[in-house]
């Protein structure tokens, strides 16, 4: 009878250890997913910043083109 109780206790201890191990692995995966999401957010923020800078360049070129057009119109008298 004692042997049966000892076996059940060992079985329960093993199952608890396996459950703890599973939960730790699940936590590790969750942490990795969070890190991946943080990297994706950072990448998106950098892409957004790059697009803003490109927009500024386009706006500056557009303004330069307007000024150039005005100068040419004044020069050629149109």
| Major sheet description | none
Q: What is the distance, rounded to the nearest whole angstrom, between the alpha carbons of the first and last residues? A: 110 Å
Helix proportion range: over 70%
Number of strands: 0
Write out key terms for the chains shown.
0% strand; mainly alpha
Polypeptide structure, described:
This protein has about 80 residues and is mainly α. Helices cover about 95% and strands about 0% of the residues. The chain is built from one helix and no strands. It has one helix at about 1-75. The longest helix is centred in the middle third of the chain and has 75 residues, at about 1-75. The chain is rod-shaped, with a radius of gyration of 33 Å. The N and C termini lie far apart (about 110 Å). About 0% of the residues are buried.
Question: Could you give a quick summary of the protein structure above?
Answer:
With 78 residues, this protein is mainly α. It is built from one helix and no strands. Helix content is 96%, strand content 0%.
Give the SSE layout.
Elements: H1 2-76
């Amino acid at each position: 009878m004692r042997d049966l109780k000892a076996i059940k206790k060992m079985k329960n201890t093993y199952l608890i250890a396996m459950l703890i191990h599973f939960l730790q692995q699940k936590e590790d995966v969750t942490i990795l997913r969070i890190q991946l999401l943080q990297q994706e957010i950072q990448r998106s923020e950098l892409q957004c910043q790059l697009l803003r800078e490109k927009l500024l360049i386009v706006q500056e070129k557009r303004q330069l083109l307007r000024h150039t057009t005005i100068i040419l119109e004044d020069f050629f008298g149109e």
